[in-house]
Amino acid sequence: MSATLFGVETPGLCQLPGFARAHENAVIALIGAIAAQAPFRTMLTPGGGRLSAAMTNCGQAGWVSDRRGYRYERTDPLSRQPWPAMPGLFQTLAQNAAHQAGFPGFTPDVCLINRYEPGAKMALHQDRDEADFTAPIVSVSLGLAATFLWGGPTRAAKAQKLPLFSGDVVVWGGPARLTFHGIAPLKPGPHKLGLRYNLTFRRAL
Ligand code: MD3
Ligand code: FE
After folding, report:
1. The domain containing residue 159 runs over which residues?
2. Which CATH number goes with the domain that contains 105?
3. Minimal CB count within 10 Å: which of 33, 34, 129, 145?
4. Sequence-separated (6 or more) residues with CB below 8 Å from residue 51
């Protein structure tokens, strides 16, 4: 599977603009229920800084960062309880998107939820804490529009910019799975949420 990005055929990338739009309100309500159990928090980095996007998780494990490093944990360090279960709608949305992108067997075990308020960003990075890089990552954007930074296979590659709107879904697999990527500082905008959520569905364990 591949899509054209910046006029270049990009293997492993599949853009599904508006794929989640019909479920926006339901997904936002479910995020609220998850955050009531496992609140959004800004995590410490190994270097002693703090991530500007607030995060929580649902599913069999959650991505966490602290002074000891980045990893997946089966329990929320704040509550020492298991992360909230992944809602059926989340699982179905992610599976259907992955199926359309050419990954028919994708069953995510983790959903990392990022919350960006205006000004929050995510520096260029690779996602490499998951056990299996043959599985894709499915991302769902909700709320304020963001500028996605697509950095290529090495940190040195100059990042290109791609706008992501509420309801957009992108599937990154195969040769796109380990590309460097990030989010430019979020700008305020007209969306009623006043912030942005991003859900990433992963096969982490
Ligand atoms: C390309 N999140 O949580 S989603 C992350 O919008 C993360 O919150 C961003 O990067 C966000 O790790 C970007 C798009 C995305 C997610 C994972 C990828 C793009 C990716 C993994 C490999 C390549
Ligand atoms: Fe990432």
Report:
1. 2-202
2. 2.60.120.590
3. 33
4. 42, 43, 45, 65, 122
